[in-house]
């Protein structure tokens, strides 16, 4: 859902994780990983890398996954991805310093 920019679906997935009591730090790390991978894929595409090369460089386990990330990155500007990385870093800081939980991640997903 993050790849497609579907924040409502991301919030639904978060609700399931919350119900299953997945540690908020783990949830945020997954969100941050997707965002940083999107930014990296955007950079690699701009450098002329193919989906095959991106798959191998990022060890994505499947060229299809690389193509999905390429499509997701294509619909987002570099500025938006940079801002999203900064928002993830701020959410991480808040999560670890304030003892907050899912509410911080909900706010992040709503902002993205």
Give me the Rg, rounded.
Answer: 14 Å
How many helices? 6
Q: What does the main sheet amount to?
A: none
Low-confidence stretches: none
What class would the helix/strand composition place it in?
mainly alpha
Would you report the number of β strands? 0
Following the backbone from N to C, one meets helices and strands in this order, namely HHHHHH
Straight-line N-to-C gap: 11 Å
Question: Could you tell me the strand content as a percent range?
Answer: under 5%
Quote the average pLDDT. Answer: 92
Helix content: over 70%
Report the principal-axis shape. Answer: elongated
Give a structural overview.
The chain contains 6 helices and no strands. The chain has helices at residues 7-19, 24-46, 51-58, 63-74, 78-98, 102-111. It is elongated. The N and C termini lie close together (11 Å). The relative contact order is 0.18. The mean pLDDT is 92.
Question: Outline of this structure?
Answer:
With 112 residues, the chain is mostly helical.
Please describe the structure with a list of short key phrases separated by commas or semicolons.
single chain, 112 residues, mainly alpha
């Amino acid at each position: 859902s993050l790849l497609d920019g579907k924040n409502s679906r991301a919030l639904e997935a978060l609700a399931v994780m919350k119900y299953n009591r997945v540690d908020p730090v783990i949830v945020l790390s997954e969100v941050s990983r997707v965002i940083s991978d999107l930014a990296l894929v955007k950079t690699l595409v701009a450098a002329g890398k193919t989906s095959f090369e991106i798959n191998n460089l990022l060890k994505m386990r499947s060229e299809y996954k690389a193509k999905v990330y390429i499509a997701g990155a294509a619909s987002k500007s570099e500025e938006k991805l940079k801002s999203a990385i900064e928002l993830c870093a701020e959410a991480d800081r808040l999560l670890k310093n304030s003892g907050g939980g899912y509410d911080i991640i909900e706010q992040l997903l709503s902002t993205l």
